[in-house]
Fold these 3 entries.
Entry 1:
Amino acid sequence: MIDRRTLLIGSAAAGLAGLKASAEPAQSSIFFGPQIPFSFDKLIGWAKDLSEKPFEKAVVSNPELIERLDFDAYQQIKFRPELAIWGQGDGPYPIELFHVGRYFKEPVRIFAVSAAGLAQEVRYSPGLFTYGKSEFAKALPPDTGFAGFRILAAPGVPDWLAFLGASYFRSPAETGQYGLSSRGLAIDVAMPTPEEFPRFTAFWLEPMAGRRGVIINAMLDSPRIAGAYRFEVTHDGATLMNVTANLFPRADIARVGIGPLTSMYWYGKPNRRMGTDWRPEIHDSDGLSLWTGSGERIWRPINNPLSVQTSSFFDQRPKGFGLLQRERDFDDYEDDGAFYHKRPSVWVEPIGDWGEGAVQLVEIPTSDEIHDNIVAYWTPRQPYRAGERHEVQYKLYWRLDEPYPAPLARVISTRVGTGGIPGQPRPKGTTKYVVDFRGGKLGDFMKRGDIDLVVTAPSGKIERPAVYPVVDTDMWRVMFDFTADSDIPVDIRAYLKKGDEALSETWLFQHLQSLSTM
């Protein structure tokens, strides 16, 4: 089990070509050190230079002391809000820094960039934090560094963006509730070899010209790749990121994940019987949404399988994909602490031609909500080769819904049960699927027989397919039985149509034999 929520991950290099740290700053000021000319073009050059040198593992100052900063001790340490970057109104938003700790040992360097393109490094000092019951952490040396940063809406107001751990970052969208994460790059997810976790080793933070926003420049490094990232970020309740990445592989990489999203799915309506908790559903996301290069809209409900499953959705020039939380009623979760009904969705919109490849969905078994067990990303058809340069651009939308909803009926729920007919002997190994649709033109049709159902599977047997309006609602319901003819996972597809016109997105569900034996 990969515990992605606590980010127990490997470290990466902290050194940057041509940049030198200076002495400890005075505690009364957060800025310090000489001014260094900076631009994104310079960062790209530094990343290329870094990729041509052997990878160097980060040096952690006093790791034994940092190890003592477990979850409880770490929660005691707070950044002094009066020392926030741009905290005096000299920038778009106040930015506070994260202390290192047991789960975030590797140091991150942070620079503030002026409008004139001059960067000043922020250096670690115990005077930047209050420690509560963790006073022992004040003994850390001046080269300790930081773990990351967070951006606040205003002084004393909760944060709306955080970069912390490896290359992970999160935004809460309109509700202010954090949920799933994104990261800079994924390497070899669900491969026979261990996954490699690239890390942002330094950040250059600058105000956006002409509007209220933040530009986050970041150096990425790991054993097999180095890269320069630029995030142009605006926030108006929802968060929008324009991402540009220049990547320089040190070695060949078989599976690169672009725009990776990491989420949690324990159980929901399709696998409610797997849930041992009192709450009816527990998940950060309930489905993968795809907008293919050909224009098809697909909804793939997420599974919690008994073994690791990787699903590939091959495409060319994709229009977008995302991990979404569609169920938004409190009654779906009954959770007044984690507020899963407020969790954000994240949509990835490619910029330019991404060519051929696949959106991959990796589902990892979990028996608790603390494990982030879902990963989705785009992987190019051609592997990355040592010595190449790759530039990738995309947008990330952090919001409650996808930014480009189709004028089609959407899947609003998927349920799974025992197949057969009530009151009669139930056939062994048969699963009943019930899928509800809402929206689009469905309201124009009133009775059974007005619209058609298309449901297919590459193997197995589909029986008793039916589609009908649900009385006293605005929903249409699809119902059918499915019997697999082997233990191999089967992708079942279904959509609604009238004549040659599609009325709904495509529901695509991976049938697992375990569903019929729960």
Entry 2:
Amino acid sequence: MSLRRLLPAALIAALLTIPLEPVAAQQSPSAVEWGTLDDPEAYPRPRGRATRVSQAPRIDGRLDEALWQEAEVLGDFIQSQPNPGALATEATEVRVVYDDQALYIGAMLYDSDPSGYVVQSLERDYPSLSTRDADIFGVTLDTFLDRRNSFIVMVNPYGAVRDGQTFNDSRNSDFGFDIPVEVQTARREDGWSAEMRIPWTGIRYDAGAADQAFGLNMLRRVRRKNEDSYWAPLERRDPAHRMSKAGTLTGLDDIPRKGTFSAKPYFLADDHSGSGVVGQERGFGADAGFDIKYGLTPGLTLDATVNTDFSQVEVDQERVNLTRFPLFFPEQRDFFVENSGAFTFGDQTERNYRQGASLRDFTLFHSRRIGLAGGRPVPILAGGRMSGTMGDWEVGVLDMRTDATDSLAGENFAVVRLRRKVADGTDLGAIFVDRSSMGTDDGENRSYGVDANVRLGALILNGYLAGTETAGATGDQTAGRLGAAYRDRTWNVSGLVRRIGDDFDPGVGFVRRTNVEHTYLTVGAHRQPGIGFLTEVAPYVEGHYYATLGDTLASREIKAGVDLYFTSGATLNASGSRRFERVIEPFEINGGEIPTGGYAFDEASLELQSSAGEPFSAGVSVSGGGYFQGDRRSVGGSFRWLVSHRLAVQGSADYNRIDLPTGTFTSSVYAGRVKFALSTRAFAALNVQYNEAVDQLVTYGRFNVIHGPLSDLFLVLTERRELGGPVLERAVTLKVTRLVTF
């Protein structure tokens, strides 16, 4: 056996010998002097109590009613950064009350400089933005106390909400899931305050459980200080929804079971024109459809959709592909984004661990294969999905049917995903995926697999075995992975071995490259250097080795780099690599051909991003070096100007120059965006992209009014044209949705 194959096995064995981090002692908080430990997770997990009230609080953000003063105060937040283990520099006090209709959370967020709030947006879910770049208060609720799954709600000082679900102890998250939460905030001279009303009909819980308790954690972010603090203290590497390390909320007695049946019909009118629009797609049209949601059990939810429409979804970001492999485009359609974590299978990653491969390399179920063909929509007639928990089981079942088009037969898509917790931090799972054409056996494709995930303190182990069945395939239709990763307060070490067969073809998934054995190793460190302007220095080395199934070297990359994190929030990343690429079949780049052969070349890159918490932020990246038989130079830049919390202007440019013996060419993408929020219920956005490779200009404009809980009005313009030439496609759409709860 070659040294290359022995190394990952040796690394995994070595990782198993590393002393694991001790579990935080479950001692009384009074036994620890808060703010004196430098390890946040050494503190005991806190406990708090909710108070039943006979009259619901008025949700106005002010916390001026007597019932709030009678509730227990949950406070003493501990920093995860910039000073891990220290008390938060700005005090936070939270109170929790409830009645038969809802859970109510009131938070007083004191601030010594209220003028220093950083608010990036008023838009719900802050599309395209990170909550890391703003002041927020967040709550995570583990309603089944399984220490694995959660609902999460975050709010900024002006009342903009971001909500979602997390699964499998934060391994997967779904911020497409919307809770009908009511939130109001108020700005004060001594800080800001927030009130949340989370209706019992909007979340799942076990109403029949005795001594009801929820897992709970809360996050406070003060962006100007680059400070994060938690009620249940966490290390910097862990998110607020790491529920295995959360605290506990008790006192939730006699919560009634609420019916959870809702319907969301829509109506739309649209007009399509342009030289590229033909047949029945051209001209004025109208349509209608609906989604329904029903709580089958406290843990299982049924979703159904009829005549699904996604016309309000933003167009994909234009990108440059300088590789010989396909690009992965993320799902943006709400119906598929919601509960997506229940169906995830493939090269999953853990936050803050370098693991060598991600879902952008391989996923057995990628919902973009449903209702899209060649980037164009395919009508979805109907579909259903059941997801949730049954005891120690996590369940996901999906079935969708698409209509026939001029070039594609109608199809049916079915997915069954099961995952079972077998011990704390350990789960086993299985998945089955079927794609079939209506009325014909052509195109029949099945995929299946089993996977396992183990978490032992800072050590994680994961692996999968998968297979496909495709008509006419005669080669290897299997795939497998074994990986291990360890990260503590100093070290970040990972390794994996993957194998993808030459005929492995997940018909409802995505695989970047087949006929390959992939070995990956990395060793890195991350420490606080004790220098005032630096939060963390993280050097690393990593190596990828790809061989064909015939054991011929296909690709190799050895890379060294360093990531610098500044107290201001800015980052600097520098790296250099030595690569080898073997081209088995020639491929074209903008008309130039890369012939077969082996190519060795070096690359280097530098990326600087200023603090996104400032009103004006910018980033620049420079990279270059060899490129097969030639050279490549790439320069990228972006900026964001936060004119106010209502208005933001963004721009980006990605310029690439390739020099080959056959000639020189450039391939670039430019984009600009303006977003305006009239309030937390009315927004407008304009996005313009130019792709030099195809000489096309894409314009997307959207006006959105939230006229009720999870109910919207959209006015959307989408246009694609040749620069200086004719309009290829233009669509104007008016769409109205309304959520009705029974």
Entry 3:
Amino acid sequence: MPRRLALLSLAAFAVVPCAQAAQPQSWRLEGAGAFLEGEIQGLAVDSDGHVSLAPAVQAMFDPEMPNAWCLTRDAKGRLYLGTGNDGRVFRLEGTRARLLYDANELEVHALAVAPDGRLHVGTSPDGAVYAVDEDGGAKLLFDPEEKYIWALAFEPKGDLYVATGGQGRIYRVGRDGRSEVVLTTADTHVLSLALDPRGRLYAGTAPEGILYRLDATTKPFVVLDSAFREIKALAAAADGSIWAAVVDGGAKEAPRLPAVPVPPSVTTSPVAEVTVTESFAVLPPAGGLPAMVGAEPPVPKAPKGAVLRIGPDGDVDTLWTSTESVPHALLGPTEEGVLVGTGNKGHVYRLRKDRTWSLVATLAAEQVTALADGDEGTTWLASSNPARVFSLGAAAGKEGTLVSRPKDAETASTWGRIGWEGSAPPGTAVRLETRSGNTASPDDTWSSWSTPLTAAEGAPVSSPRARYLQIRLTLSGAEGRSPVVDALEAAYLQRNLRPIVDAITVHPPGEAFQKPIPVSGDPEILGLESEPAADRAATARAGAGAPPATAYSRKLYQKGVRTFSWKADDPNGDPLVYDVSYRGAGETKWRPLRRRLSDPVLAWDTLNVSNGRYQIRVVASDAPGNPPALALTGERESASFEVDNTPPSLLASLLPGRGHRIHATARDDASAIRLLEFSVDAGRWEVVHPLDGISDSREESYEFSIALESGSGPHVVVLRAFDQLGNAATARVDVP
């Protein structure tokens, strides 16, 4: 019976007595996206996040070329491979391979075997189709004006459909080489062809991503105007549905121009022309392959590729989509689904109609470009960069590995226990190895892989203390049985780092902020000491509170209040409390102002201190998350600011013998005079500039005349002077 293995509790982690944060953290690898970020060999990962042994992959042939574009098999079970950049065709029989045909063109993008067993080869970039015999002798069958031959497909009667690029046409070519244009699309390239069980031809195009259907009379119908630029591969199912591998989502240009008219053909057969004027289907947002762990951008990425299923009734179902992988080839569908070859990690997926999927193979190449059925459940795979041919077996392999992405603990850390969740049938095994280092990418400076941990209950990590950790998971099977791993988890303890107080903002005099949710009927000022000391201590013990609400709280004016807010951060993520102290200009001693604040904001009622210049100091402590002996602090001093709660003095009088001219003197002991204004008989206030032209001193003199109508008196002139802190003084002058 399989054993269900539970991951060990992180509470069992042993704390090493050094300067570290008090609480361990957990690095958990769980879910398909997290596992697919690693380097996988011989393992399968399904959409539910289960990791198990994959079908065995065996390298069969190396043509010593960069690209392998296409595969096909004949009735005798022989496999044919088309390559680039030398335009060669190889024939594989069992473990033997031979060069069958070397074309004059650079690329062989299409292969098809005729009902009579002859191999047909489509070449590019000079666009020709050759019939190749058993001994490699080639006969030019068809030479269109287009430069690219992208796909070939034989109908049961023996005629050959040829998909071309340059003018986006499909030709039907007879065994005698006579040809006719059966479709001129509104697109540049016809990339893919497929015949369904009813003999209808499906064709996918680029760069507008349109799927056409042609019936026996070659009448065209647009089945799908996709949201992708390329329909790269097609597969027809027995139930009448069509599976399509599509590439490059979210990059189409609109609107399209009508189809290019078909030039005169070399035959008198009917020709179909298509003008696309509306969209027949719009792809919905799709799920599928989970986004990779890491940075998730604010704007969702457009998918690089997807696999769609177009049902017999025309409904479009998006079965799989990825922002990382590009589908290149399809095989099937069968009862188990369809195989999809992708790049640029050499992955092969099996997709099912219920939107579940499995990664079934990872090749030692960048792209999986072609797939073909083999005998007894074997599948043939062709890759590019480099070109290779592989066989994918039906049974699970004996061993596979997954090397995780490195975990960045952000600081040198001590590693705790590591374990896994899943099941291991008798005779199977799960091994975990770790290594650590202080560079983001593993290199020669990293430690060696540790001794494998085989105990079912997990064990402490033996890798050295460092910033980065990597895990290697190895699964071993027996008699077709495979262990299954659902999650990996490792504990670590960061070195405690000092909190950082990034900046202190000194708000204008009298500016205060109302608490977002007042507890009483009266407005409560954020950061102003009003709660009992016992309540403040309880708040501090609760840890770091929410950031100050100054960004969205309603502003108030409160005479004598100076509000300060600051931004602080703890690299370990520990909760913070703050001690605030102050000192006067020229003083060296800091006096406590408030202790163990949980919010980074303070409103100070300065009416109980003398006028003058002051500074505050904020000390942030991570004590709530650490034992007293290990707690650390960080601090910052504010810019100096003025405290002045005393209004200036103001003297004013009429100048003798100068009519209605008034002289005034404003003086302040603490700050400069900012403004003088006057009002006549309770009229509007008018500003007066000082005699020296600028308000920048603690004493300023003013002279000004008032315009009065003769005989209209007496009048009352009220003067008002303000200092820099907003304190005001008034004076009155009676004008007879």
